[in-house]
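During the reporting period the student researcher (J.K.) took over the structure-prediction task from the postdoctoral fellow and processed the backlog of single-chain submissions. One of the processed entries is reproduced below for the supervisory committee.
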Amino acid sequence: EPVSIDGTIEKFLTSLDDYPPVLLKKPEYRSEMDFEFRWQNILSMTESLAAADLEHHLQQLSADYPNRVSVAIALITTQLDLGRKAQAKAGALALLADYPGFSLAHALVARCEYECGESDLALERLASIEEMQFFSHWEELSARFALTDIYSRAGDLRAGLQQLRKLVVLAPDNARAHRAMCDVSLRLGLLEDAGAALDAALKLDSQSP
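J.K. obtained the following structure tokens:
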């Protein structure tokens, strides 16, 4: 199973909307009730909507609510899914400009740089993320999934494994983190670690409803 920031988008990052921007992009004249209705409507359709349709709905919501971090990140990750690398990178850079201390924004830019073939820039940016403060437990979890993804695809499996070890401490009940740790450990020949991670993942899977 690929380790990707997209796998952590199930809740569409609503918890991040309390993160204070450096500068509000523009006033939001529509009501909170309108936002919640449209946001929940998008959430309810994510399983059935094609990615291009999801992008369209997110673009409309982002235009009306430009200060919603959750919508911006959902749009960026959807555009990456669609292969719209330039648009996703532009969105990630805009998010970073508004939230320069937001480590997940740096991780998104790094992922976009990597997807655009700028692997040196991406890896350099990843190294700087380790020195940053995380806004929340959720942000650190999401950022470390992104770090793992890029390190692993760049061939630096040991760096990816280091991130996964931090992930399973942060989220011991996350079966996906344990499965990813099993995969990377196997690729590194660490059979005992791989077996322990697989056992943990299977146990968690058996406990899920």
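The committee noted the following: The chain is about 65% helix and 0% strand.
J.K. will present the remaining backlog at the next meeting.
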